[in-house]
Amino acid sequence: MKYLLDTADLEAIRFCSESFPISGVSTNPSIVRTSFAKLKEKPDFFAHMNAIRTVIGREKAFHIQVTAPDADGMLRDADAILNRVDEQVCIKIPVTMEGLRAMQALKKQGVTVTATAVYGKTQAFLALEAGADYIAPYYNRMESMGLDSDGVIAAIAQMIGEYEYPTEILAASFKNAGQIERAFEAGAQSATMDPSILLAALKQPYILDAVEAFQSDWKSVFGDATAAELD
After folding, report:
1. In this structure, are strands 2-6 and 190-193 parallel, antiparallel, or unpaired?
2. DSSP three-state, residue 1
3. What percent of the chain has pLDDT over 90?
4. DSSP conformation letters of 195-209
5. Residue 187 pLDDT > 80, yes or no?
6. I need a labelling partner for 195 at 20 to 30 A (CA). Which of 14, 55, 105, 215 fits?
7. What is the rounded distance in angstroms from the CA atom of residue 228 to the CA atom of residue 154?
8. Of all helices (H) and strands (E), which one includes residue 90?
């Protein structure tokens, strides 16, 4: 299982990278808008993306989404991202007719492609055939539409296994840790989420109560000295 951060917030990325076993970062135009809204001045997009890369390092995955709606524009966006950030960036492309055209063209160039905005099996299967390296099904959004998110992920995983596609499921769009758990159980190898979900998962009252009980029991015997401070 791999956990990625779905954010462009530098401080959140720094903090979480120091605490969690993070495998990378994923962004899209909506995430960028939300993260940049917190800044006092309009940022330099590519400088910001490079700053994220500096924080996570070159060994971790970095998914950046194109912004153009047409295939030619997507290819220009991809070229700009690869040249102005680095060639290891995974280019995120929505699975539309134009997106599929762009994916196939990028794969001919050897570019790593993430098929995103996936809401069902047909989109996913077409992305597999187009050569996508990652497929990002939108878990919560599908669930909100009354779709079987677990079933969609399981079907994608089954096709990957049966036909030996070199593709990884990068599940996205989550509202809570339970959804992430179910996505992994359904067959996703990776999941990208807002940092707040990870932070909330480890701040549950019963976890904090258990830790407090451990500390209280220790202090009842050894006082304020920690194990390292004992004679």
Report:
1. parallel
2. coil
3. 82
4. HHHHHHHT--HHHHH
5. yes
6. 215
7. 47
8. strand 90-94
CB 64 within 8 A of CB 85: yes
Count of residues making up the chain: 231
Cα separation, 99 vs 127, whole angstroms? 9
Catalytic residue among 2, 42, 60, 92: 92
Active site annotation includes 108: no
**Tokens standing for 79?**
């070229």
The pLDDT assigned to 203 comes to 83
- pLDDT for residue 210: 87
Tell me if 135 sits within 8 A of 169, measured CB to CB: yes
Widest distance between CA atoms in the chain: 70
In a 3-state reduction of DSSP, which class is residue 191? Answer: strand
The CB-based long-range contact list for 185-189 (8 Å cut-off, 24+ gap) reads 185/150, 186/149, 186/150, 186/151, 186/153, 186/154, 186/157, 187/153, 187/154, 187/156, 187/157, 187/158, 188/137, 188/153, 188/157, 189/1, 189/2
DSSP run (H or E) holding 220: helix 205-222
Instruction: Please tell me what DSSP assigns to residue 228.
Output: G
Paired tokens of 193: 């989420």
Q: Is 174 helix (H, G, I), strand (E, B) or coil?
A: coil
Q: Measured between alpha carbons, how far is 68 from 211 in angstroms, rounded to an integer? A: 49
- Chain segment 114-151, per-residue pLDDT in tens: 999 999 999 999 999 999 999 999 999 999 999 999 99
| DSSP code per residue over 16-69 | HHHHS-EEEEE--HHHHHHHHTTSSS---HHHHHHHHHHHH-TTSEEEEE---S
